[in-house]
Amino acid sequence: VHDRMPVILAADGYDAWVEPATPVYRLDSLLNPYASQEMLCYPVSAIVNRATTDDPTCIQPAEPSLDTSST
Fold first, then answer.
1. pTM summary value
2. Which of 2, 13, 40, 46 would disulfide-bridge 9, Cβ 3.0–4.6 Å?
3. Pick from 26, 29, 32, 25: which is nearest to 7 by CA?
4. What's the whole-number average pLDDT of the chain?
């Protein structure tokens, strides 16, 4: 997606990730590439570019734009 892609954890690593007592070596073992076949990719609204927007509309699928003027 881009070079600042966040960490994506497998469900079995959630508890260890948020537990302050988890040793660093255990956290490090959670930082593995996430399987691409487990991800979905779809266009979303440009509303995601507004830092003040924090609601479910940010992840709702949007129709692809045919406007190429901004590329």
1. 0.54
2. 13
3. 32
4. 85
